[in-house]
Amino acid sequence: MDLNTLVSRLHEINAVKLGQFKLKSGIMSPIYIDLRVTVSSPVLLSQIAEMMYQKVSQDSSMPPIVCGVPYTALPIATAMSIAHDTPMVMRRKEAKNYGTAQLIEGRYKAGDNVLVVEDLVTSGASVLETVRDLNASGLVVTDVVVLLDRQQGARQELAKHGLKLHSVITMEELIDTLTKQGKLDEPTLALVNSFLEANRAVTVPAASQMPAAAPAPKPAKKYLTYEERAKLATNPTASKLFNIMATKKTNLAVAVDLTRKQEVLNLADSIGSEICVLKTHVDIIDDYDQDFVHQLEQIASKHNFLIFEDRKFADIGNTVKYQFESGVYHISKWAHMVTIHGVAGPAIIDGFRDSIKQTGAGLLLLAQMSSKGSLCVGEYTNQMIEMGKQNSDAVMGFICQERLESMSDNFVLMTPGIQFNSKGDSMGQQYNTPDYVVKEKGTDVIIVGRGIYQNSEPKSEAIKYKQAAWAAYESRLN
């Protein structure tokens, strides 16, 4: 099947839709390609799979395993697998809490190369989510194949991660073919072309192709400074934290999981000059009282850091309101920020609104966790990001393992599970290094626990983590 026939068949089955459509990237598009309808046209589906298979085979060596991005690309990958007797693995959108509890299903071994199959790409976010989970399972990804490249930055973004994108057709070729076939009238064509021009990824010509006198264009700025992001933040605590980080030149938070109040206070005073945030679990302190909170607030004021109570609220709005404001701990009176799970839905945020209007405190949504087998993945993570965007006055940021494209610069991204020794522990905790999460994964604040508070010289160790994380931040700016 040639491209002309492909486009004609896609149009016949209403896979090409015109109107106003919100893409996963958040962009509103006047044209939408819905390849989910191909499951009702098995011959066309198998032809599409064959075109994609041949495209990869022509451009490079074919990886021995295929994996479709859920869900639209799963039938395409299956058709490809059956037609060529190529083994397939399947990535779940979320791990189950029963059976094998695996994210990646199928037979494979560490080091196997996998071809990622997707229907189309805009920003590349869905592909990168699948690649992340495949890599976490020990698999290697070098190539990605799609039917359609919308030409809105995915190719360049995937290339940054060492991935080669193969596409059967581009959006430009699709529009050109539809026009030649008389399937787009002039007003619609003008609208679509205007959209494509406004959203097309910018490519810089090679130096040899540029006029000698033309100055090289400046690359787009990928990361803003903490000072710049403080001005963008819509939650006052997020703005305050960005400014503290910039002023103190530290993006280190320390988790103090000690069980005696004097131990917590001594450590806080010792390392306070090196940190931007102190993270507590007050419900594990055996001798907790309000005097402890009063002393902790004084130390925080003395050293200019914020107090983060990692309560992980996860109930209905009315219940979390009482948990936050009342009870033994009266968390709302002293914590600058708290964590919440989003399992109860966005209504949970309403339970905090009255208090945070008074205090300016910030909520941190648990988008991802550092424990092995965490269920905070895939669609759950996407929903947490969307919940944060819809409530950016109350939500100051996310607990996450990486900066995803949909995370805006007005949010603080905090990553737990940091140690120079990244081997993990016997209870499923997985560790990453400061350089990896700040420079490579693009998050903002590293959260270190046992690596500091269990060290015989916690302040000197805190200085090491502070310097490493700040150096990684400065490196990514450059």
TrEMBL record:
EC number(s) from the headed UniProt entry: 2.4.2.10, 4.1.1.23
Keywords linked to the UniProt accession: Decarboxylase, Glycosyltransferase, Lyase, Multifunctional enzyme, Pyrimidine biosynthesis, Transferase
SMART domains xref list: OMPdecase
Binding site for substrate: D257, K279, S370, Q429, G449, R450
Pathway: Pyrimidine metabolism; UMP biosynthesis via de novo pathway; UMP from orotate: step 2/2; Pyrimidine metabolism; UMP biosynthesis via de novo pathway; UMP from orotate: step 1/2
Gene3D superfamilies cross-referenced by the UniProt entry: 3.40.50.2020, Aldolase class I
InterPro entries: Aldolase_TIM, OMPdecase, OMPdecase_AS, OMPdeCOase_dom, OPRT, Or_phspho_trans_dom, PRTase-like, PRTase_dom
Coiled-coil ranges from the UniProt annotation: none
Record carries keyword Glycosyltransferase: yes
Highest taxon of the lineage: Eukaryota
GO biological process: 'de novo' pyrimidine nucleobase biosynthetic process; 'de novo' UMP biosynthetic process
Active-site residue numbers: D310 (for ompdecase activity), K312 (for ompdecase activity), D315 (for ompdecase activity)
GO MF annotations, alphabetized: orotate phosphoribosyltransferase activity; orotidine-5'-phosphate decarboxylase activity
Domain spans labelled Orotidine 5'-phosphate decarboxylase: 251-465
Similarity remark: In the N-terminal section; belongs to the purine/pyrimidine phosphoribosyltransferase family. In the C-terminal section; belongs to the OMP decarboxylase family.
PANTHER family xrefs: OROTATE PHOSPHORIBOSYLTRANSFERASE (PTHR19278), URIDINE 5'-MONOPHOSPHATE SYNTHASE (PTHR19278:SF9)
Protein name: Uridine 5'-monophosphate synthase
Source organism per UniProt: Heterostelium pallidum (strain ATCC 26659 / Pp 5 / PN500) (Cellular slime mold)
